Amino acid sequence: MSAFWWAVLAACIWGIVPLIEKLGLIRSDPTIGVFARSFGVVIGMVIFGLWWSPWNALGNLGVRSFALLALGGFLASFVGQLAFYHALKMG
Known about the structure:
Largest sheet: none
Structural class: mainly alpha
Oligomer: single chain
Number of strands: 0
Strand content: under 5%
Shape: globular
Distance between the termini: 37 Å
Helix content: over 70%
Number of helices: 4
């Protein structure tokens, strides 16, 4: 699949998921929403890790690259998601 179609797929997913999350936040606190979403990510990563087995590639990544990617994940997937859920809940 070309880069264009990967981008279209990402845009479609990122366009639909906030609607699903808005519905999920109707009777939930945003912090609980982030917890539930993160649980879904963990389940997905376990399935992905068992299917793809990226462990050798992770060993070749390097500490600096791993730390920067982990920091980006923390900021985008936790801090950013928490702010986004507060905005969805209030707006």
